[in-house]
Design a protein that fits this description.
Distance between the termini: 44 Å
Largest sheet: none
Number of strands: 0
Structural class: mainly alpha
Length: about 80
């Protein structure tokens, strides 16, 4: 599998996003935004991309992920911040 050069790809995706924003096709704008975020994530710049999510596509930072009421009583104390 060939090695992808993400910096030139990021530049190309940002140009494409600027071009898509001049139009009215919302789906094309969303795809361009996702491609810019993909290149940023592969460059290790995750803070500049999309919202951080888990592998199951659940938001991770600042989002309450625990909703299992049945096992809630098994937790002795809350984790300290």
């Amino acid at each position: 599998m060939p090695r992808i050069k993400f910096k030139p790809a990021l530049d190309a995706f940002e140009e494409a996003l600027a071009e898509r924003r001049t139009g009215t096709d919302e789906q094309a704008i969303e795809v361009a935004r996702w491609m810019v975020a993909w290149a940023l994530r592969n460059l290790g710049r995750t803070g500049e991309g999309q919202v951080p999510v888990s592998p199951w596509n659940t938001m991770t930072k600042g989002y309450r992920t625990r909703n299992n009421k049945r096992t809630q009583t098994m937790i002795v104390s809350r984790r300290k911040k």
